Amino acid sequence: MGLELVIFIVAILFGIFLYWRESNGNGAYRFLNKIVNSKELQMAADNPKGFVFKQAFLPRLVFVVSFVLVVALILEFLTPVSVFGSYNGISAFSSFAVGTLIGTYIANFVIRSSKVIEEKSDSLEDIVHDTIEKGKDFIEDLKTKDAEVVEEPKEAPKKEEKSARERLKDKGLL
Question: Mean of the per-residue pLDDT values for the chain?
Answer without folding.
Answer: 80
